[in-house]
Amino acid sequence: MDTQQILDTISRIVHIGTVIVLGGGTVFMWRVLMPSAAELPDAEHDKLREAVVSRWKKFVHAGIALILISGFYNYARLATGHKGDGLYHALVGTKMLLAFGVFFLGSALVGKSKAFESLRQKRGRYLGILVALLAVIVAISGFVKVRGKPVIPVTPPAETASVTN
Question: How many CB atoms lie within 10 A of CB 30?
Answer without folding.
Answer: 19
